[in-house]
Design brief:
single chain, alpha+beta, Alpha-D-Glucose-1,6-Bisphosphate, Chain A, domain 4, Helicase, Ruva Protein, domain 3, 4 domains, 5-stranded mixed β-sheet, 19 helices, 32% helix, elongated
Amino acid sequence: MVQKYQSPVCVYKYPFELVMAAYEKRFPTCPQIPVFLGSEVLRESRSADGAVHLVERSCRLRVEAPRLLRKIAGVEHVVFVQRNVLNWKERTLLIEAHNETFASRVVVKENCSYTVHPENEDWTCFEQSASLDIRSFFGFESALEKIAMKQYTANVKRGKEVIEHYLNELISQGTSHIPRWTPAPVPEEDTHSQAGLRDPGSLKVCGPGSAQGPAPEMVSTDGDKLDADYIERCLGHLTPMQESCLIQLRHWLQETHKGKIPKDEHILRFLRARDFHLDRAREMLCQSLSWRKQHQVDLLLQTWRPPALLEEFYAGGWHYQDIDGRPLYILRLGHMDTKGLMKAVGEEVLLQHVLCVNEEGQKRCEGNTKQFGRPISSWTCLVDLEGLSLRHLWRPGIKALLRMIEVVEDNYPETLGRLLIVRAPRVFPVLWTLISPFINENTRQKFLIYSGSNYQGPGGLVDYLDKEVIPDFLGGECLCNVPEGGLVPKSLYLTEEDQEHKDQLQQWRETYQSASVLRGAPHEVAVEILERESVITWDFDILQGDVMFSLYHTKQAPKPGPREPGVRAGGQLTDKGWALGADYSRVEAPLICREGESIQGSHVTQWPGVYLLQWQMHSAPGHMACSLPGVEDVLMALHSPGPRCKLLYYYEVLASEDFRGSMSSLESCTSRFSQLSATTSSSGQSHSSSLVSR
């Protein structure tokens, strides 16, 4: 496989003629480049008017490779042939080099050019590209490729330093200006031969204008080139390989993509997300560009106006920057009624708002790059979880969150520089178990999670935020204008009368199962648990009547009692003969649930066995049942008219392995999470809780 490398444009702020004088000082030997052992001229010619100067040299380079590899190869140095075409009239130097040593096994081609800067004729641009094709090399092909890349990296860096060294030497010697070439009078009979030498094609030079080798990447328009200083200033330090990938992907987009070409910072994020694997990054970027075009994301900041309800209840906003100059976004998730927001504005509006936040984040990164004079390509997010409870486990909300994570991961990679999570409550590990599998591993490594007040003091927020910008609600002195959130009034919820949202409301309901509860005939669901420390989660809405919810554990699987035709098998599962404390035990305290309420909860199991989720009609305090109803009660309830309770419910089991794995990943995110993990997964106790969210 042929490997290609493309370096960015290097700019010397000196005239072309002075740079050429510095370049000639590199020959025949150059002490500043130790691997360059020397050179000799093989062929040299000039045009009649002296405008074109062709030089062909044989150059010897020392092999910087392990001794064993040099011994097997039987060489201590390699020979390259370099062909230079210097055109004083056009002010260009085109260089082509290829290896002679091991030419049947390895093919190395290098193309360089010195040209006048397109915007300043007193500056000089240098470009370099190379290709490497290792056909066979005594079984050391992979090692040779690494050595070649290392050598290329060193040459790129050292080459610029050497030219600058000789430029400074010339200036120190009093040579700061060299006149431009002017044509001398040429006899008429020599005009034809001179014209031939002026034509680079007549010299058969494989330079940037040639169709051979990797050089076509250099013939792009001036606006397509990347300056090395620009990369360092606006994009950050990149290795030559990374620079090459960026330039190649950029050129490919310019040649094939119809429409607006993404900025270099944007392209670089996709390369980083795919570890600079060019083909994978190109595929990811192309899919994202198609998505942006389909949803008109480029116009989002100009066209999107969030509903007034969202501006009031969405507890998120931008707040200065972190200690590294990254834009800082604050999200008070614990204070935000995610269920109420989704029911009031719909999932699509929330997604649009999240996309707008990401677009604004990229824009702020560009502004901070200019403001601070250094590359800033990502932002920091501070998430306050005070108030986070089981109501945030509402299943349609979780599904919407996972969808948003997927969209952001696919289209805004490497935009999150750091995620600071503070005041994480005990329920957080359950939420983390649900969402962490959908978060990229590289992104998870940027999470810093603090429980309780661990975010205060050394090792906390002061390590990442200046004291002057720490929000007042976290003990800082800076007034934060991020909305406080709060419960969204039910009167603002969408209804099926709004046809646009009818399908979404129906989709949310399909997540749940429906059940009816009669007096003496509860609805029960049996959940088999094979390993302790599995997590049972539940989410249900009371549509009619008042219900009492309980959670029981038993070591034996219940057998369904008799039921009338058409009655669901998931109704009554237990027998009155069971004794509380002997055949079964209550592991979740009874919870009274009123009509119209929504309840979310979870339980970290202490033992394997069968767990029963039970909903039964709520009786007055003096008549509350203290044991499971019997078969006679069920049959009587089925045949007797009376009040009926209705509910929609959903439950899910998080496997012990997944839960423990999520705890481990949390602990690996930050050392500040140990207290929270200890209270959540204690070996001596089970942990359970339910919450009435509305």
